[in-house]
Specification:
Radius of gyration: 15 Å
Number of helices: 5
Strand order of the largest sheet: 1-2-3
Order of helices and strands: EHEHHEHH
Low-confidence stretches: none
Structural class: mainly alpha
Oligomer: single chain
Strand content: 5-15%
Helix content: 40-55%
Shape: globular
Largest sheet: 3 strands, parallel
Distance between the termini: 30 Å
Number of domains: 1
Number of strands: 3
């Protein structure tokens, strides 16, 4: 079935550790359907780097060799795989915060941990049904 709407050059979707299994699956289905030139993620911190969620666990487990990484960097960098996106948009007027995020791009996401996380999200979704 063809789309009635023009195919977007860029598709922006929610991304990051706070995105649930249903939204991750829906975003990936939309990407497969529309085949945009690029996919961007947004809102990786769920609105703020001071959300209570970021105090409850250590997001650095999502990165390989994460010893010098800050939790903020780990949240940002992992958003590139949840779902897979080419870029992640954030909003701030703090240059130190932006520098911290740019530095996060040097770290590698552990795809095995991401796969296990997604498996856990899906299992939780099944329990809630």
């Amino acid at each position: 079935m063809d789309l009635d709407a023009p195919r977007p050059d860029v598709l922006m979707v929610r991304a990051g550790l706070l995105v649930g299994a249903d939204l991750l699956d829906a975003a990936e289905a939309l990407v497969r359907r529309w085949r945009p030139a690029q996919v961007w993620g947004m809102s990786p911190f769920g609105g703020s780097t001071t959300e209570a969620a970021w105090e409850k666990f250590d997001p650095r487990i999502f990165l390989r060799d994460s010893e010098p990484v800050t939790p903020v960097q780990a949240v940002y960098r992992s958003a590139f795989r949840l779902p897979p996106v080419d870029a992640v948009a954030v909003g701030t007027d703090n240059t130190d915060h932006l520098r911290e995020l740019v530095d996060a791009l040097a770290y590698e996401v552990d795809d095995q941990v991401v796969r296990e996380y997604r498996r856990l999200l899906r299992a939780r979704r099944q329990q809630c049904v």
